[in-house]
Amino acid sequence: MHYLVRMTSTRYAALMRGVNVGTTKRIAMADLRAAFEAEGFGNVRTLLQSGNVVFDSHEPVDADRIESLIERATGSRPRVVLLDAARLREILDENPLAELADDPSRLLITFADEVPDGAAIRRPSDDELLPEVVVFGRHAVYQWLPLGVSQSRLPAGFAKALGATATGRNLRTVQKLLALLEEP
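The structure assignment produced for this chain is given below.
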């Protein structure tokens, strides 16, 4: 008698920092898909051109393994924030700016391995940032940018102060990633 053993898997989203922004770190999404599939990951999909890969794995995965995989496949080693559906859902549910943000393309969520205390980051005061709003959450930094990302009043070094792996996505992209993570 043969028994069919069903292996469970976890679906992950790998968010790469600085991929396909400007002319640096150009990576073709088709190359990424092929590399993830060759590594044995299943259900591999990319979202947009900004370095978002969703995939299934039957074993636990860490960011270092994904960074090494990308480096072998493309010659570039972007830093990666790795999230599963539960963590991404938690970050979205904790969004303190959800009611304020009336345009999901102007609400930026910055993911980091560890979010520092907002008081420890040098930045303009809340009044100086207006109409922009920045809130430090437990697992992400939420930024309402009613004038758009290019008009942000935060200094360019702000993201670097969040750590080497910090990478941002607008709410619209995050919602699409969550939908891919939660597909049956």
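Interim note for the steering committee: The first helix runs from residue 29 to 38. The mean pLDDT is 89.
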